[in-house]
Records
---
Amino acid sequence: MPDRILITGANGLLGQAVMHIFSRESDYELIQSSVEEKGYVNFGSDYIKLDISNKEEVKKAVKHYEPKVIMNCAAFTDVDKSETERELCWKLNVDAVKNLIIAGRINNSKIVHISTDYIFDGKHGPYDEKSTPNPISFYGRSKLASENALTTSGVDYAIIRTMVLYGLGINVKPNFALWMIEKLKSKEPINIVDDMIGNSTIADDLAYGLLKLIEKNCRGVYNIAGRDIESRYEFTMKLCDVFNFDKKLVKKIKTKDLNQPAPRPLNSGLITLKAESELGFKPMDTIEGLRYLKYQLGY
Ligand SMILES: NC(=O)c1ccc[n+]([C@@H]2O[C@H](COP(=O)([O-])OP(=O)(O)OC[C@H]3O[C@@H](n4cnc5c(N)ncnc54)[C@H](OP(=O)(O)O)[C@@H]3O)[C@@H](O)[C@H]2O)c1
């Protein structure tokens, strides 16, 4: 009987990538779950509707399936809305993680949780796993609080910090790369910031790193993100190269010109050396990630 993994938020961008890679590359028995009535993609595994902010629902599901690992891909991910919808953001990003901890503790399940570079202030990136967090947005504070809940819980856990996820999925929220492809394909000009630095990460590659981490039963904090640390503008230039788009459509702007409600860490980036040496995981660079996306899109 293969070990069982309960995947929460399986209808999201990362959740779908995890279902896709884990079902293709491993023998784990997967339980696909998300807050919606149905799974957006049929992977041939059990689907259950599971709202992780409902403590009793979580306990019941964990008691029933007895997963070896709870892979948490669910979250409130709208960074700007997190500034105004604080109660909901905290409920989904912090209280819900505590529900997973309570259920995991009873069943002895390992919890694998996803965090973000938004726990840093973006003054002195790139960051390694030992860098000191200092979130500057409410979303960042909620994600740091979720990390702290796990590190002080006494359960077996792994926290994976990642950043700027992109990729393809059914009904997923628009992401940076797909938005640009849509605009540039129809020759619409776009404004892209050149002062926000970090490593963009294709969701399938992160999912592959998560699988390695689970297979090796690693514990603690790991950065898993794309190989290249660069500005969003540099990423866009590579996207133009890979997809053959006209670079003249792309205008450089500054982050402050976007007037976003939530402040962003600007000089960020995640150093992935620990994951590379301990998991044997070689992240894709930007060109590889974009070529993979191009293939997925059927170009
Ligand atoms: N996207 C990024 O750039 C990025 C960067 C760094 C870290 N991360 C982290 O990576 C993880 C995955 O992000 P993602 O981009 O895949 O986000 P996503 O596409 O928004 O997926 C999150 C999923 O969680 C679901 N969900 C929301 N509330 C739930 C609940 N109470 N119970 C169960 N499911 C619930 C959402 O459903 P609805 O859509 O119906 O709300 C959605 O399907 C998150 O922890 C996020 O913080 C993301």
Note: The mean pLDDT is 97.
---
Amino acid sequence: MRRHIRARWLEMLILLPAVALLGQTQSPVTAIQCGKFFDGRTLALQENVTVLIRGNRISAVGKSVPIPADAKVIDLRQATVMPGLIDCHTHMFLQGIDYDQLLLKKSLQYRAIWATVSARKTLLAGFTTIRDLETEGAWYGDVALRDAINDGLVIGPRMQCATRALSVTGGYSPYGYSPDLTIPKGAQIADGVDGVRKAVREQLANGADLIKIYVDHRRRGMTNPDMLTAWPTFSLDEVRAIVEEAAKVEAKVAAHVYASATAQTAIQAGVASLEHGIYLDDVTFKMMAEKNVYWVPTLMAYLQFMDDPKVSPERRRLMTGTTERHRETFQRALKLPVKIAFGTDLDGQELGWMVKYGMAPLVALRSATSVAAELMGWQDRVGTLEADKLADVVAVKGDPTQDISEMTRVVFVMKDGVVYKDAFHGPSDHHDP
Ligand SMILES: [Zn+2]
């Protein structure tokens, strides 16, 4: 038996370098012929570009790139080709039912299964990378999902995970239950500089790629009937401690915020992005531009309630006031140098609304490609179609500069060199295990 094991080891030692060598020389080559082409950065569509892919990386992009004889050719000359889309604000574990029901009646196991379905839908809708901004009470489920995708168990986008997110005592839903009961909260509650340091260390130890915090939050019984209002949570010292702990492992901090005053606390403390920012003023946008803080407006997070028949008249009134202010803030920001990164808070029509509110289509697409990649710190691997980037490619049939709704009908999805969807040419490379 012993001898047998030793013999197997020897065999493996001899074989391993040979396999590695074979792997290098035999990476399959794919050539994508593009009709219209957006590189993720340049604000003009190009034509007749070829994208050459070796294995999981792009090896060349251009109009006169020679196609090797052994290359698999994917003909997308009838389509507009662009980098895989990036959503900087998702919740794979927030599953479109009443929030309290989700937290109190669905098991973590059920929610995890549901999240795998959301991840699959997200990828097939053209999002090859996401920044998932907390599990809403599902603990470290996002880390498990990220790892299962990376291991090839289920299909989905490549993920950065914020895990549990942080707020203060009284600063997170669900609200309104008897104080005699212990009700699970949608975020991790931490107070004081020592408390938040420990919580950040805990989240990072359990696999968080970034930290999400609520610097303000709605509280029960404090709601303006015409407008969503939020109240400050963490002190400047607490946010500083959070940013400092995260920075030790080069993790960024994303801050949920509505109001300018709390946004300024977050900016001063050194967060990387502000999420939502419904009421941000020009002074705040100026501070953001100076400190390279990105804005992820998530228009759909509020607009989604406008044509939902289940929404009560009171809530509709609240959302009408809120979405009007959000629109005004967005249109003001378009004239300022602040960087806007794409985030949906759910799947949907975000790009359409950005364009409807006056953002040029290619600027909107840039916010969902190269700008989003910069915010995530992944600009060296995703967000543009150029040599050495990972082969994340999507395509739509029509021209999104003419009709942005084309982006809701993605017909081709490649992630990491693997085709997951190809409406032009039938079955994809990928087969579910
Ligand atoms: Zn969110």
Note: Residues 235 and 265 are 8 Å apart (CA to CA).
